[in-house]
Design goal:
The complex is a heterodimer of chains A (279) and B (375). Chain A is α/β, with parallel strands linked by helices and 279 residues long. Chain A contains twelve helices and ten strands. In chain A, strand 7, helix 9 and strand 8 form a beta-alpha-beta unit. Chain A starts with a helix and ends in a 17-residue tail after the last helix. Chain B is 37% helix and 20% strand. Chain B contains eleven helices and twelve strands. By secondary structure, chain B is of the alpha/beta class.
Chain lengths: 279, 375
């Protein structure tokens, strides 16, 4: 169930950004992808960052994950300035923050079996010296959490699975790692509507079990409305509107948000095709 | 009833794998589309939607093979024709197809106008390049695409623009049936809307006579098409108008699909998403009897005995389930989950609103007539 605003404000902050900026290129080619963005994500909060393609959502996610550098501004992880200056520190940071990406087909190493993938996660969590039976038990648990059968998957390669199964396996990974923050970058845009429901349910279940903060990055306003406590609307690298999902989506203030909502086909209201924006 | 543009009778096609196994991906599909109407095909991944699209073109190449059935386009039977004949006389003029990965359909080393020349020259070699350019320019103008696109390479276009260009190219010869296989699934909402608007323009201006729209986005299907057909494991399990299918699904599978709809509207947040457990059956050896039985909530022992026959109800609707329509509707009403639960509330509100607006209008008209009489 979505949390109320008060409940949220009492929770400790896990990730905070202060005027985070990313500029690509120099001189004439200078391109500000993310422009002085402030945010504060709290424990077990479900956040959605919504925007069109090219609005800087994924760039922000990559900065938060530490995959690309920050041009300006600071990111605070659990109220301390994040330190990822060395590979060792980065690895430590990734124990607390993980991601599920859009394309399940390119998230896996095609040369490794599924066992290897899950074992890597166990190793990252410091379980390298566990007995084999214990490792198998952990992997079986993780697979059954996402309604997959470990016995059927063992010794298989990722490309032998369907898109929905692969995406579920990504979530099994997250279940093993139990990070504080999960960044889900368009996790359901490449799977069909049925698997989408399953995947969302699993992510929300995970939130309830391990008190995880989930950051959804999506262009699907319907999805944002369904899953999130708070919604941030992003346009040209800036947040134009933010607030609880109910406030932002049912009662949008910014022109951009209104347009995004009107672009989504609906069931109970007429979908107005005449208001298509310029070419 | 309008003229029937496309009629398909009991179409069966299969894939033959490397190990000579048969996969029956389209198994006894019958449908018809009238002139000026569109038909949506819904279903989860792997249930045969895209194979149906390929089969309807009549253009078969390995591993897809034709088994039996008839495809009649505007009175002309195209099933069993040779691939070369189909390519020359059918594709482009009778049927056009927009593939799922239309974004990658354009060769990056050629300008957009070259593709249009290719399409037209495949049918008539005598048309001059200048005529083609004029024709393309006019068509692009009508569809609201900038003319510069014609002299651009595909890599210079954005995703949404590429998709619209592909649609414009494939419909340049005004086909009778347009088959669109997930034309907007890789686009964001704004580009998606532009693509849909263009397809509707094509339909309204008569460049295409009818359309088959394949997608798993149900709210989109509901807004775009007149009829919706739900496919499962190569068969059609239910058919009805878009409204009926979304608000009153009868087959347990369609009911499950409709339960996965997400829309940003008031109240939808409190409805729990229904996911159908399990995966579609392996079509190499489809299960006997009802193919959905293994995943169905309302399964009874007789479900897996014998083939299900189509049951027609409410004049033009069809479903494929052992239970009667009344039984299913009652059961769903008791459960009261899914989009239908908020629907009843909403539609009542809408009705009331309509009534009040009608009343106010009546009052207004009464008043005006009174005024007139007074005058």
């Amino acid at each position: 169930m979505p949390m109320s605003l008060q409940e949220l404000q009492n929770k400790p902050s896990v990730l905070r950004g202060d005027k985070v900026t990313k500029i690509f290129g120099y001189g004439v080619n200078k391109n500000t992808a993310v422009n002085e963005v402030n945010f504060n994500f709290r424990e077990s909060e479900v956040v959605s960052i919504v925007g069109e393609s090219g609005s800087g959502k994924t760039t922000l996610a990559k900065m938060v994950l530490g995959l690309i550098g920050v041009t300006q501004g600071d990111i605070y992880f659990r109220d301390a300035v994040r330190d990822i200056s060395s590979h060792k520190k980065k690895k430590e940071y990734w124990k607390g923050i993980q991601a599920v990406f859009q394309d399940p087909f390119s998230s896996f190493n095609m040369f490794n079996r599924i066992d290897t993938l899950l074992l890597d996660c166990i190793n990252l969590m410091g379980g390298k010296k566990l007995p084999k039976e214990e490792k198998v038990r952990l992997m079986t648990d993780a697979c059954s959490f996402v309604n997959l059968k470990y016995e059927e998957l063992t010794n298989k390669y990722p490309f032998e699975l369907s898109g929905g199964q692969m995406q579920r396996l990504m979530i099994a990974r997250i279940f093993l790692l139990k990070p504080k923050i999960l960044i889900a970058d368009e996790p359901t845009s490449m799977v069909d509507a049925c698997s989408r429901a399953t995947i969302l349910d699993m992510l929300l279940k995970l939130r309830d079990e391990v008190n995880m903060t989930i950051i959804f990055i999506t262009h699907d306003i319907g999805l944002a409305y369904y899953v999130s406590d708070t919604v941030y609307i992003m346009e040209h690298g800036q947040f134009v509107e933010s607030g609880t999902a109910e406030d932002v989506i049912l009662n949008p203030q910014a022109e951009y948000t209104k347009r995004l909502i009107s672009d989504v086909p609906k069931i109970h209201e007429e979908w107005d095709l005449s208001t298509v924006a310029g070419l | 009833m309008g003229k029937i543009m496309l009629e398909v009778k009991d179409l069966k096609t299969k894939y033959v794998t490397r190990f000579k196994e048969n996969v029956y991906a389209v198994d006894g599909v019958s449908l018809e589309i009238e002139e000026g109407k569109s038909l949506g095909v819904a279903g989860e991944s792997g249930c045969g939607k895209s194979t149906l699209a390929l089969s309807l073109m009549g253009y078969y190449f390995a591993p897809l093979h034709y088994i039996s059935g008839e495809i009649i386009i505007d009175g002309k039977n195209i099933s069993g024709m040779k691939p070369d004949d189909v390519r020359k006389n059918i594709l482009g003029t009778e049927v056009a197809y927009i593939p799922q990965a239309a974004m990658n359909a354009l060769n990056p080393t050629q300008k957009v106008i070259r593709f249009i020349e290719d399409v037209i020259h495949a049918h008539d070699k005598s048309v001059s390049k200048k005529d083609i350019f004029d024709m393309a320019r006019k068509r692009f103008e009508i569809l609201g695409l900038p003319q510069e696109v014609l002299n651009r390479y595909s890599v210079e276009l954005s995703g949404g623009m590429k998709q619209r260009t592909v649609i414009a190219i494939s419909t340049i010869l005004s086909p009778k049936v347009l088959i669109a296989d997930e034309p907007s699934s890789a686009l964001d909402v704004t580009s998606q809307k532009m693509v849909i608007k263009m397809m509707r323009d094509l339909m309204e201006k008569g460049y295409i006579k009818s359309m088959i729209f394949i997608t798993h986005e149900l709210p989109l299907l509901y807004n775009v098409t007149d009829h919706i057909m739900v496919m499962y494991a190569g068969q059609i399990v239910e058919r009805g108008t878009a409204r009926e299918m979304v608000f009153d699904p009868v087959h347990p599978y369609s009911k499950g699909l409709m339960g996965s709809i997400i829309v940003p509207e008031e109240g939808t947040r409190d409805v729990k998403l229904e996911a159908i457990p399990g995966t579609p059956p392996n079509l190499k050896k489809p299960p006997a009897g009802c193919r959905f039985a293994a995943r169905c909530k309302y399964v009874i022992p007789t479900c897996s005995l014998g083939e299900r026959s189509r049951r027609v109800f409410d004049d033009n609707r069809m479903h494929l389930c052992i239970h009667s329509v009344d039984f299913l509707r009652e059961t769903y009403a008791k459960e009261g989950t899914g989009i239908a639960a908020i629907k009843s509330q909403k539609s009542e509100n809408l009705k009331e609103n309509k009534k009040t607006s009608e009343k106010t209008q009546e009052n207004a008209s009464n008043k005006s007539s009174e005024n007139e009489s007074e005058v």
